[in-house]
Every structure is written in structure tokens, then in C-alpha cells.
Design a protein that fits this description.
about 575 residues, mainly beta, 22-stranded antiparallel barrel, 31 strands, about 0% helix, globular
Length: about 575
């Protein structure tokens, strides 16, 4: 897993404001199978299977994958709203099945040519925290395809090409038509408007078409990467059709057949150079953003909240830039720094919601930010099996129209914040002591302040000016120790791994503290995890056991909702992969 802080490599494209995560999957040139089954506390069953087979005569490798989950999630929590009230999460069942068929075309024109067909089915009950939801659930099915093509020396010797593209068809719905309401004490009362989550019944049947691609062209002007130019084009188009005859009958008007189109496109041109004997690397990037939305939307949660269809026709062009520098002081030490003026475009689920738990906001504006960060890196190999890494960064972000999620009684909604100021420091140490021991630790301190001085459109001072934004932790640490050894108990072909992970999050806020009498603090939490893996037959069979939250410490989400306490996991895996 590659984590990029600051400016990301040009070939990733996109509109992230200063970070990226790249997951590199296993690649093998042999047939293999991999089966696993996991049982977890609170009625969670998770089974997965992967098979890969090569057809040498056809120069094709085929991969079959399937994963199924059945989870009750029936743990007991204490209500964050009513002191002393215990809530049994007895309506949070999840059933999920996803599957895929992948084809790799080998020894052809492309260095990598992959096609994947996929599907995903789910049915999830809705668990109430503020109210006792007993009958509402969501359902969905997704089908689609992904394509991945890569080619060095594409058309000309100095040009490299990468193309990732995909299409998804999604059918989803919310079923919320109950005619009575039950409280957490077991009392039942009639519900004349019907529906448990909001005040409008929902029996939705929505359709989404999601198409996207990322094309990257890299031209090497000088050999060995001393000078190159990179053109990246990233596009996403989403069409969503909303249908809900049940809500329409309740409102007395037609709210079905409403369709919205959302398009976001980012084109970037980057120049990368290496100077002074490859000690200094610079990347200068210019970006063009296009965002557009056209169609009708409706909010079917509460009467008057936007339940009248609204037509939206808006679009805009934006321009950004960035400069990233890295200087190798020695073979071990390096300095890095970056500045950028960039945008993040609203995603479809932020604009039109998911029609289940996220409300619509078609007026959401793109996020604009000026980012600055400076960091230092240390990377030293003692010998083949020992390595010490250290990284520290400091950063500041001035953001306009910051997009953030708020909670509104069983639902969530994305809104713009006029201005925000974010700054902080983070550091991480990773040490491969030898082939058996690995330890790491990281820490982050960050402030996220509302920097809007006046209430929008007025000269009235904002009460929350320079106050900490809700739902964002300020100080947190993570640490871990990992011990691995072959044949720890004698014999042959055995493998043992023992690991410990810890995390501490200091208290922070789920609301603005406008008065000393308000208590919007999420309490601090220190969570410990202990696990053991034991493999036999050269790790062809692996058994695992883990205990998360070893001491059953109360743990809350960033919206102050309780999480499960101590959780045990048992896992068995059969594989023919070589380790």
C-alpha cells in the first residue's frame, strides 16, 4: 500500500487535495487458488474464494473471485442521547455478495491488458440510534466492467501509456413504509405519515449509470527519467434516475422519473526534471477542471426539506497549479516541499445523495484550496534485513467552500463551509530491526478551524469564527510491533506471526462549543489489538485469531455514535500462493 502525502505522482491524475493511496495487488505467473473463511463476534461470517488459471495456448489468464458476507452486527451499546439507556443493535443485518471474472491477455501488443466483469448484491437493515428503527432496509445490485491497458513505447519509443476505464450499472432502493413507530422502551404508536427514518414514506427504485476513465501519457524527453512531460485526463460521468411512487402518493405529486447528469473532468500537464546530478527533482503541473450538473433532483426525507423537484443546470471551468520539489541531501536524507492551488470537484453522492442515508444538495460548490507542505525523509538500510525509515511533515491548507458532512436526524448531508484553515504536523518511524521484528509508530496533530469571519452575505460576525470544526480529530497516535519466525516450535514448513497494534485518539468535538454549558466532546480512546497467525505446509494453510479492543474501551465514531466493544475474529485460509 503506497501512501502519498503532499503532491501525488502525475500519472494518478484526479483532484485530490494533497494525498493519494495506491493499492498494488499480487501479481503471479502461476495458477493458484485462495480460499478463506472468517468468523467475527456479533454474528459476522465472511467467506472468499479466488482462482487463477493460465491458458498457455491462448495466452490468457483467467481469475474468478467471489466474496460473501452475512453479518448480524448485534452488539449492545449505550445511547449517546439518553443517559443510562442500553440499545441492542438487533436491526443491522447485512447480506452482501460480490463476484468478478477477470481476463489477462498475455504476450500481446500491450504490456498489460486486463478486462474484468463484476457484480455486487447487498441487502442491509437500518439500525436506529436516535430512534428505534424496526423495519427499514436498503437493497442494491451493481454490475459493471473494468479495463486496464498499459504500454511502454506506445506509438513512439519515448511514449508510455496507461488507460484505466470502467462502467457500472447500479439499481438501488430504500424500503421505509412502516405505519407505526416503536421507541427503545418497547412502546408502539401509530405513524400516520408512515416511514421510520424521516416523515415521508420511501419505496425507491433508482438507477445509476457510472462511467469513468483515466488516460495517462508520459513522454520521456531525456533518458533515465531526467526530463519528462506527463499528460493526464480523468473523466467521470454519472446519470441517476430517481423513482418513488410511494413518496409521490404521500406528497400528492409525481416525484418519479427524475434524472440528473453529473460530469467532472480534470486534465493536467506536468513537467518533471532532475537537476544537479539527480539530487533535485521538480514537478510543475497545470490543471484544468470542468464540472457540470444538469437535471432534476428531489429530497424525500422530510416535508419542506426540498421535496419539490428542483431543476439544476450549472457548470464551470477552473484552473489550478502545483510545484513539488524533493532534494536528496545524502543517500539517506531528503527534503521535500510543495505548494498548490487546486480544486476538488463534488462527487455524485455528495450532490444527489445515495437516496438512502445521504440527502441531496445540488448547489454544492467545488472545494478550492491553497496548500503548502514541507517534509523530511530518512531511509537507511543497515543490511539486507534491517531498515530504518523516518518521515515528518508540516502543512497548511486555506480552503474555500470546504465540503463537509453533517448529521441531520438519521440522515447525513454534505454542505459547503465558506472558509476553513487547516494546519498541523505528522511524523512516522518504521524500523525493520531484523528478519523477525518490525515496529512502527506515527503521530498527527492538526487543527481544523472555521475561518469564515462573517455570516454568508452579511456583515454579522460569525459565532464559530476560528473555532475547531466538528467531527475532525485533533491529536492521534498509532503504533505496532510485529514478530515473525519460521518453525518457532520446531519442525518444518511452519510460520508464526504475533502482532500488537495500538491507537490513541484524544478528545475532540462533534459540534461547535458555543456555550460552556454545551458538552460536544467525543471522549479520548486508547484501543489495543492483539493477533496471532500460524501457518503450516509452507503457509499453504494459515490459521488466525485476533482480538480488537482488548480492554473493551468505549469507542465512538466522529459523529459520536458508539462502536462495538471487544471483538474477536477467527480466520482460516487455504492457498497455493508462494510467499
Amino acid at each position: 500500500i503506497e501512501i502519498y502525502k503532499g503532491i501525488v505522482p502525475p500519472e494518478f491524475g484526479g483532484d485530490g487535495l494533497g494525498s493519494a493511496i495506491n493499492v498494488v495487488t499480487i501479481s503471479t505467473d502461476k495458477d493458484f487458488y485462495d480460499f478463506s473463511y472468517k468468523y467475527q463476534s456479533y454474528g459476522v461470517h465472511d467467506a472468499a474464494a479466488t482462482l487463477r488459471h493460465f491458458f498457455p495456448k491462448a495466452n490468457i489468464a483467467m481469475t474468478l473471485y467471489m466474496n460473501g458476507i452475512h453479518a448480524l452486527n448485534n452488539y449492545t451499546i449505550e445511547s449517546p442521547f439518553i443517559e443510562g439507556l442500553k440499545i441492542k443493535r438487533d436491526h443491522d443485518r447485512l447480506r452482501m455478495l460480490d463476484f468478478a471474472v477477470g481476463l489477462d491477455f498475455l504476450n500481446g501488443y500491450f504490456d498489460k491488458a486486463e478486462v474484468e466483469l463484476l457484480g455486487y448484491l447487498n441487502n442491509k437493515q437500518m439500525q436506529g440510534i436516535e430512534t428505534n428503527i424496526r423495519h427499514t432496509f436498503t437493497r442494491g445490485q451493481t454490475y459493471g466492467a473494468n479495463f486496464n491497458f498499459e504500454k511502454k513505447s506506445f506509438l513512439t519509443k519515448k511514449l508510455d501509456m496507461k488507460l484505466n476505464a470502467g462502467y457500472l450499472f447500479i439499481n438501488s432502493g430504500l424500503v421505509d413504509t412502516c405505519s407505526y413507530i416503536t421507541d427503545f422502551y418497547g412502546n408502539v404508536r401509530p405513524n400516520t405519515v408512515r416511514g421510520e427514518m424521516g416523515a415521508i414514506p420511501n419505496l425507491s427504485d433508482d438507477y445509476t449509470h457510472d462511467a469513468r476513465y483515466n488516460l495517462n501519457l508520459k513522454y520521456n524527453l531525456l533518458p533515465e527519467g531526467k526530463m519528462s512531460v506527463n499528460l493526464n485526463n480523468d473523466l467521470r460521468y454519472v446519470n441517476m434516475e430517481m423513482n418513488d411512487d410511494e413518496a409521490g402518493r404521500s406528497l400528492g405529486r409525481n416525484v418519479s422519473g427524475l434524472s440528473s447528469d453529473i460530469i467532472g473532468a480534470i486534465t493536467s500537464l506536468s513537467f518533471q526534471n532532475r537537476w544537479f546530478g539527480n539530487k533535485l527533482t521538480s514537478v510543475v503541473t497545470g490543471r484544468h477542471y470542468y464540472f457540470g450538473m444538469n437535471g432534476e433532483t428531489v429530497d424525500l426525507t422530510y416535508p419542506g426539506s426540498g421535496d419539490t423537484p428542483v431543476n439544476t443546470d450549472r457548470g464551470g471551468n477552473y484552473f489550478g497549479y502545483s510545484l513539488a520539489l524533493k532534494y536528496d541531501i545524502t543517500r539517506q536524507w531528503a527534503l521535500k516541499g510543495a505548494l498548490e492551488h487546486n480544486y476538488r470537484l463534488p462527487r455524485s453522492e455528495e450532490l444527489i445523495g445515495d437516496r438512502m442515508t445521504i440527502m441531496t444538495n445540488p448547489l454544492l460548490e467545488p472545494e478550492e484550496a491553497y496548500n503548502y507542505n514541507v517534509g523530511v525523509l530518512y531511509d537507511y538500510y543497515y543490511h539486507n534485513e534491517s531498515r530504518l525509515q523516518f518521515e515528518a511533515n508540516t502543512y497548511m491548507m486555506n480552503v474555500e467552500n470546504m465540503m463537509y458532512m453533517i448529521s441531520q436526524f438519521n440522515y447525513y448531508k454534505y454542505q459547503n463551509l465558506g472558509k476553513a484553515l487547516l494546519y498541523g504536523v505528522d511524523a512516522e518511524v518504521k524500523w525493520d530491526i531484523n528478519r523477525h521484528w518490525f515496529v512502527s509508530c506515527n503521530a498527527t496533530w492538526q487543527k481544523s478551524l472555521d475561518n469564515t469571519k462573517y455570516v454568508l452575505g452579511t456583515n454579522t460576525p460569525s459565532q464559530t469564527y476560528r473555532m475547531q470544526l466538528p467531527h475532525i480529530p485533533i491529536l492521534y497516535f498509532n503504533w505496532m510491533a510485529d514478530y515473525r519466525k519460521d518453525n518457532l516450535f520446531g519442525g518444518k514448513g511452519q510460520y508464526t506471526r504475533i502482532y500488537y497494534e495500538g491507537g490513541y485518539t484524544d478528545k475532540y468535538y462533534y459540534g461547535y462549543e458555543l456555550s460552556k454549558h454545551q458538552n460536544y466532546k467525543i471522549p479520548s480512546a486508547c484501543i489495543h489489538t492483539l493477533g496471532l497467525e500460524y501457518g503450516i505446509l509452507n503457509r499453504k494453510v494459515i490459521l488466525g485469531v485476533e482480538c480488537h479492543n482488548l480492554f473493551d474501551t468505549p469507542e465512538m465514531t466522529n459523529f459520536n455514535y458508539p462502536l462495538a466493544g471487544r471483538t474477536f475474529t477467527l480466520k482460516v485460509r487455504f492457498t497455493t500462493l508462494d510467499w
